[in-house]
Each structure stands twice: as C-alpha cells, then as structure tokens.
Amino acid sequence: MAQTIKGGPSKWDLMLAVFDGGAEHPRLVMFMVKIEDAPILRSFFVRITGVDRDDGSGESFMFRGTALDGRAVQGFYRTDRRTGVIEAK
C-alpha cells in the first residue's frame, strides 16, 4: 500500500544517495511518511538504488531502493515541495 510522503531529502541529498553511497557504506535518505488514520509521521529510511526524472521540471523524480528491513521500495518524490508517495513491497 502506498503511503504519503510529508518530508524528505533535498535534491542534493537524493543525488548523493545515488552517486556517493556504495554497497559497503550506503548513504541512506529519510522520508517522513504519514501514518494512515493517525495524526503522526514516522521516519522511513531508504537506500536509494535508482532515480529517474518524472518530467522536465528538474524537481520531480521516480525512485527505487531498499528499506532497512530489506523490502523493495519505489515511489514518486518532488524535491521542491518535499512531498510524494512511497510504496514498500
């Protein structure tokens, strides 16, 4: 089930997660995710393995990665608004 992102990394931090992290020392990013039917946010850490541009704005990205528990993660994220959607499989 997809969850709403209410905060997350800057464009710079997203880029570093892809290009500066490695298998031995991955660079994690943290998304703040809205818990369904609850007034709280929770931290969701992801090792980003790939990013694609979504449109020509330079601010919208489709991403994929791995959660700390090993689940595959994918989502959409806008770096200027720090909002989006994330889904763990």
In short:
The protein has 89 residues and is mostly beta strands. 10% of the residues lie in helices and 53% in strands.
Structural class: mainly beta
Count of domain modules: 1
Counted by DSSP, the helix tally is 1
Strand content is over 45%
Question: Any descriptors?
Answer:
single chain; 89 residues; mainly beta; six-stranded antiparallel beta barrel; 1 helix; 6 strands; 10% helix; 53% strand; globular
Characterization of the model:
The chain is built from 1 helix and 6 strands, in the order E-H-E-E-E-E-E. The protein is mainly β and 89 residues long. It has a 6-stranded antiparallel beta barrel with strand order 1-2-3-4-5-6. The protein has one domain (2-88). The mean pLDDT is 92. A hairpin with a 6-residue loop joins strand 2 and strand 3 (41-53).
